[in-house]
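Hey, resending since the last one bounced:
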Amino acid sequence: MEVRFVPDHLVLSVVVGSRAYGLETEDSDVDRRGVFVAPTPLFWRLAKPPTHVEGPLPEQFSWEVERFCGLALEANPTVLECLWSPIVEHVSPAGADLLALRSAFVSRRARQSFTGYAEAQFRRLDPERPNWKQAMHMIRLLISGLHLARHGEPLVRMDEHRDRLLAVRRGEVSWAEVQRWRTELAAGLEAADALPAGPDRRRVDDYLAATRRAAL
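The structure tokens again:
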């Protein structure tokens, strides 16, 4: 019998993207990200459970819990923002425990990861014909990362910056101003020093062990 990892073993499902950021338009999709816990006996076989699953809903992507935790420990921006999404559509006891654990994943590595992801987006932009939506999300990522570096959690809802960000998306902000904003945010992110040197791997290991025992 085929195992339906999603939705049968889903422990957390959140909305991310523009709707979580408060930057949606009428045409925006509903982007869902989730975490599932594969039944522990499946790991005793040669063929292991998948590390991620796409679907079954449109724009839905879910990670197996161990893969999710590994990415979070590496300060992957997308994964960290899942843990602070303001729109939680499904949460089981194991999912609630994962949300309660979110501060354990935070470390100074986030400064490099958020800056690196934003820099990669910036390099793909053509100053002569910018993709303004991509430029907006580059700036949004730096805002989120700066908030994380200063306050210990990423900023997901962009209410305070919404009007200016949407102006960037509409192409109403000059490229020079976007460049200045990016430089200011990147400098602030580099200078911020409020994060712990490393994540709390022991707490994460304890959570994974307890989750695997519960899924026997």
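The domain at 10-106+199-214 is CATH 3.30.460 (Beta Polymerase; domain 2).

Sorry for the duplicate.
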